Amino acid sequence: MFKDADLLRLIEGDCSPEEAAAIQAWVAADPRRGELLDQLRAVWRLTGGSTREWDIPESHERSERGRPALELVPPRRRWWTAPWATAIAAAAIAVLVVGSLRVFFPRPVGGPHAYATARGQLSSLTLPDGSRVLLGADTRLRVPRDFGSRTRTLELEGEAYFVVEYDAKRPFIVRTAHGSTQDLGTEFAVRAYRQEPAVEVVVAEGRVALRGLRGADPVLVTLHPRERAVLDSSGGAMVRREVSLAHYLAWTRGALMFDDAPLARVTAQLERWYDLEIETDDPALAHEQITISFMTKSADEAVKALAQVLDVRATRRGRVVRFVSLRSRH
Amino acid sequence: MSEPYRHAFPIPPPGSADPTQHTWESAFRTHSVELCEYVLRFVGSAGIAEDLVHDLFLSLWDSRGRRGGMDLTRSYLYVAARNRALKYLRHRRVAAAWIDRAAREETPTAASPEDLYLRRELADAVARAIAELPARCREVFVLRRQQHLSYHEIAARVGVSLGTVKSQMWRATVKLKGKLAPYLFIL
Q: Is the ipTM, as predicted for this complex, more than 0.90?
């Protein structure tokens, strides 16, 4: 009776009350239609200001005392619609307001603290200096007892996103197994899982200095926004510029994104985020490079999506997932 | 499509100085449009959304004496609008499953996801995605989303049938959904 295109009518409000109710019943009958509706709404929101022009009745009367007539405020356009609507040169982003992660950050009490997340868990915290940290899955953060006295040093094993206030007198340093970062007034992500041979840093705002293993090592490289560095145990650093922040920071919003990533990396992340053990029977699978995104809270859906991309059959028993190749790869 | 009908807002009798009027007017000016957008997600019909928001402001005007100095804050308005929308749905006996779904709608947070670091990237991605649409698709989409022309107006402007306009609109939306997939979750 209805088709997917009718969802637009619901989004735009382009129907009578009776039609709206009918389409809503149609949507409610199948959760996939609801998901599609949400996605289309997201497209709408991304590509324009208001959904439509609104017509709230106004009073055009003026009293003798000159009370002004009410006028409907024109729809507030989201600023990012401006560039495609009217060619405007991209404005320089205002400098370095520390962003806000809208999560409740509990304040730790003094003394050394170890914070840890389990697989499938994220956590956020506020450090004694007011800096904020979002911990990814399967991550450990150690805050030494003397944090904040002369330096603000932390030890990280796992993945975390930092929002830091610059303080020249007390450098903010994140130590990992392969190197350390020092913030110069920033927001940045550090990734240093034990199973991986390198530490990765992505900068969202400000600048971050990357050093070798011993803290006093000369600075290897300074990163600016939208730059990503990979530093391995030999001390070599590789920097890429103009990376996609949406891509690398997707995890801070509960999504995982991979662009031409080796399968091992994808499965490792899935294991941490969904608390699984993933096995593959085909060694040739390990050479696959995958582009895929996961935005679901459901482990089954994530596994299914990956299996589809790999063209394998997936079976799951509890935490253990096995991929069996459906086709020959040689 | 339902016809909007006009109420008249009450005007205080001459001679009365009304300190709450400023608050009410300011709330109306600032929030009426976003409240309509919000209520539309519940009720699906623009005329109803407008009516409900209008009724809300009328009722807030009527009750201004009783509210005393209580501020018409954004969150207060959203809660009030949401309650009205849900009440409307229940009254109209809309499918229970839809009401459940609507009840789970989150109130938009005060600062939209204008996280600094994503803004420029989003703007680029959206501009590119729209530019990559086939010509006619893009034309229809822009006329609708940017200039808010009616479908009839677009059909006349572009010189095609109403049906073609609607199908081009749908086509554009689906293509954009594909191109903007990595960004959809940000909202």
A: no
Q: Which residues contact A318 (CB under 8 A, 6 or more apart)?
A: none
A84/B contact by beta carbon, under 8 A: yes
Given its phi and psi angles, is residue A329 left (phi above 0), alpha (psi -120 to 50 degrees) or beta? Answer: alpha
CB of A85 less than 8 A from some CB of B: yes
Among chain B residues, the shortest Cα distance to A246 is held by B118
Does A297 reach chain B within 8 Å, measured CB to CB?
no
Establish if B17 touches chain A: CB-CB under 8 angstroms: no
Measured between its terminal Cα atoms, the distance across chain A in Å is 47
d(CA A269, CA A299): 12
A238 CB within 8 Å of a chain B CB = no
Q: Among A77-86, A196-205, B68-77, where is mean pLDDT lowest? A: A77-86
CA angle B94/B98/B102 to nearest 5° reads 110
C-beta pairs of A305-312 under 8 Å, 24+ apart in sequence: A306/A266, A306/A267, A306/A270, A310/A263, A310/A285, A312/A280, A312/A282, A312/A285
Residues 6+ apart with CB under 8 A from B104: none
Option in B48, B53, B117 nearest A245 (CB) = B117
Of the candidates A20, A44, A225, the beta carbon closest to that of B44 is on A20
Contact A322, A283 (CB under 8 A): no
Q: CA B70 → CA B27, B54, B64, B152, distances in Å? A: 12, 20, 9, 45
Per the prediction, chain B carries an average pLDDT of 80
CB contact under 8 Å between B11 and A59, yes or no, is yes
Q: CA A289 to CA A91: how far, in whole Å?
A: 36
Q: How far is residue B73 CA from its own chain's centroid?
A: 18
Give B66 to chain A, closest Cα distance, Å.
Answer: 23
Nearest-angstrom CA–CA distance, A156 and A192? 7
Contacts of B148 in chain A (CB under 8 A): 50, 52-53
Q: How far is Cα A115 from Cα A110, in angstroms, rounded to an integer?
A: 14
Model confidence, pTM? 0.51
Distance from the B82 Cα atom to the nearest Cα atom in chain A, whole angstroms = 17
3-class secondary-structure state, position A314 = strand
What's the pLDDT score for residue A91? 22
The alpha-carbon gap from A83 to the nearest alpha carbon of chain B, in Å, equals: 7
Whole-angstrom distance, CA of residue B179 vs CA of residue B176: 5
